[in-house]
Write a structure and sequence with these properties.
The protein is mainly beta. Helices cover 8% and strands 54% of the residues. The protein has one helix at 12-17; strands at 9-11, 25-33, 40-54, 59-69. The chain has a four-stranded mixed sheet. The longest helix is centred in the first third of the chain and has 6 residues, at 12-17. The radius of gyration is 14 Å and the shape is globular. The mean pLDDT is 81.
């Protein structure tokens, strides 16, 4: 999402606040390091969301996979 990262993260409580339908959540086995120094995290779920990128002149919508972070 940031133009170079291959790891898009979203917090569990963010999905709760969005009142997001759990039926679109999929199984995942992604492990990552470096977000919290010295620790690794295992994401057991992921979700595909439509994200709108825009400027005042134009816009585009892309589907991005977000890994749901357990903390």
């Amino acid at each position: 999402m940031d133009g170079g990262s291959v790891l898009n993260l979203i917090y569990e409580d963010t999905l709760d606040k969005m009142q997001f339908a759990g039926s679109r959540v999929e199984q995942s086995y992604t492990m990552f390091r470096g977000i919290i120094p010295g620790e690794e995290a295992l994401c057991s779920r992921r979700v595909t969301l439509d994200v709108v990128f825009y400027t005042l002149v134009n816009y585009t919508t892309k589907e991005l996979i977000f890994h749901i972070v357990p903390f």
